[in-house]
Specification:
183 residues, alpha/beta, Rossmann fold, seven-stranded parallel beta sheet, two-stranded antiparallel sheet, 6 helices, 9 strands, globular
Amino acid sequence: MFQSHNPALLVIDVQLAIDHFDTGDRNNPNAEKTIALLLKRWRKIGLPIAHICHASKFPDSPYYPHSPYFAFKPEVIPREGEPVFTKSENCAFIGTNLDEWLKECDIQDLVICGVLTNNSIDATVRVAAGLGYRVFVPEDATAAFPLKRLDGKHVPAEDVHWIFLSNLDTEYCRVCSAEELHR
């Protein structure tokens, strides 16, 4: 599957803050468990891992650094030596030195997981592909919320998730399952 010997796992925005927005309509409620399994595997094999956290510029946001919801979820807490990149935008490459770190580590393949499929995952995947990385997105290690369209209609979370992944697949990344990454 990978063309290099050291694919990096990027875990994006899996912070307590995401639950602040959950009204019970999120798809893929096991995404965090799947991400935890990916982390366990990457750690066991000794592959590179990077954690991305979102730091909102707005004091009333649950993603604001002084918010009680800013912390990583317990399933994905970074271990000593695993870099943490803090972003203020939707893309993990904007305003961080993530690209420099990846280049220093000679990383060419990225596995991108986290939340939300239609926000930070989408933005990061697109930029990563534009920067020349080969990107893999395990569909069961990301999630979405329902979306209200501009015409007032509602799109269920499962549809939002699959529409965004379907749009990314083949042009920007390869959508797969976490299980496929274990082969």
